[in-house]
Amino acid sequence: MRTTKATIRAVNGLTARWAETVSGATVFSAAGVWPLLGFLADGAGGAARAELSEAVGLPADECALRARELLNALAEVPGVAAALGLWTDRTLELREAWEAGLPAGTHGVLTGVGDTDRAALDAWAAKRTDGQIRRMPVTLTDGNELVLAGALTLRTDWYRPFEESFLCPETGPWRDLVLKGLRRTTALLDRVGVADTPHGALTELKVLGTTGVDVHLLLGEEGTAPGRVLGEGVHLLAGERTVVPGHRLPYGEAGPGVRVERERCETPRPPSLEVDTVPFALSGEHDLLRLPELFGLTTARDDREGHFPGISARPLCVGSARQSATASFGALGFRAAAVTAVEMLAAGAPSTPRHFTTTVHAGFDRPFGFLAVHRRSRLVLAAGWVDDPEPFREDEECY
Question: Distance between alpha carbon 390 and the CA centroid of its chain, in Å?
Answer without folding.
Answer: 21
